[in-house]
Every structure is written in C-alpha cells, then in structure tokens.
Amino acid sequence: MFKRLKLRATEPEMMDDLTTGGEELQEALVHLRRLNKIFAAAGPTVYGVHKLWIAAGKPGSLTVLDIGAGSGDVNLQLLRWADQNGIALEITLMDITDEACREARKLFENEPRVQVVRGDLFALPVQCADIVTGTQFVHHFASDELAAAVQSMREASRYGVVLNDIHRHWIAWAAVWLTTRFISRNRYILNDGPLSVAKGFRSSEWKKLQSELADSNFHISWRPLFRHAVVIPK
C-alpha cells in the first residue's frame, strides 16, 4: 500500500464513466454525502472562500460557482457561513452528469440562493463568478491535465479559485476504505472512495502545479481531515 500511494493512481473512477450511471450513481451521490459529513469535507472549501472574501475587502454580496459539485452538499456549510457573516451569497452548482444535477436540485429545492446547471468546465464564460470552487474535483484529472483544468477555473473567476482535495496518505486511504464498507454497499462508493484517496495529492504536486501555472499567489494549507485547501487569488 505504501508503494501504491507513492505516486498518484491513474485508473479512472467509476463516476468518470459517463456512459454509465442511473439509479446506482444517484444512490452513490446520497451515500457520498455521508462520507463528506464524516470526513468534514466542507471545511477546507469554507476556509478558502473566507480567505478570498477577506482579500476582496469583505464584500456584502458574493457569487460562487462550484464545479463538479455532485449533489453540492458541502455548500450547505458555505450558506451557513454566509448567514453568520451577513453576506448575500448566490451559489451555482455545476456538474456534467444528469444524476448529480437531479440530486442537487432535490437537496436544494427550498433554497432560492442555489441554482443547479449542467455544464462543462472547459466551456465556462470568463469571470462568470466571484469565486470558483472545486471540492474533491481536480483529482479526477490526470497530472498532465491539471494545469488546463485549474486555468479554466481561474479564468471563470473574478476573485480567485478554491481547490479542496484529498491528501494522499495511507491513513486517509485506510480510513476511507473502512468507512465506505460500514456505510454502503454501492459499487461506486466501494470502488471510488479509496481510489479517490489514491488519486489525491501531496504538497510537492501542488507546488508543481503552481510552477506550471507560473503563479506566485498560490496558498497551500493542510486541513483536517487529510485534505489540502489550495487558494489561488487573482
């Protein structure tokens, strides 16, 4: 296991296969919310958005575009953060799959501050949101695709980008492997949960991305539980 985690895994997750899906994928999105709650997945995203909000002068209104949002559950905590700080927050959840968009619409059906759209990262309008976020999103890209993906996110933002992704570590892998088997029998969860850790990042790989983007305004923070918050101001 230690050797396997030395480098990022290259095999695709089941969720990356857009020819499959249906009810099993929709169930997986519900179970993924349980994992996100157990492992405090929203924390690094809120941390990063808060940093960019302060850097922008604490504006009274804010727009956030969450790319690869899945059912968008991490944004529940972001809405609470906005309420606590008196911010008029509008969130757009974007995903490429119909299943994710359906599940997000169900979760936020009574929340007027959230809209859900189906869309593609590489077809985003320039500066279409104040902040663009990606929670457990960019690990789906191969290392040689990463810079183009993040650059597209950066161009779509006015204030900057927040990346929240997994620290590749054997403790994180073991914890996710065990937890997935306690909470689910869904094939997507059992396969993609541990694999997402193996496709995660170490600090050196974020620094390599920083070099590829030629961006000195690049802040990498380790956050609980085994996550990195990468904040890229504009």
Automatic annotation (TrEMBL):
Methyltransferase domain mapped to chain residues: 64-156
InterPro entries assigned: Methyltransf_25, SAM-dependent_MTases_sf
Key word Transferase present: yes
Key word Phosphoprotein present: no
Pfam families per the UniProt record, alphabetical: Methyltransf_25 (PF13649)
Keyword terms of this UniProt record: Methyltransferase, Transferase
Gene3D superfamilies linked to this entry: Vaccinia Virus protein VP39
One GO term of the biological process aspect: methylation
Gene Ontology molecular function terms on file: methyltransferase activity
Protein name per UniProt: Methyltransferase domain-containing protein
Species whose genome carries this gene: Paenibacillus lutrae
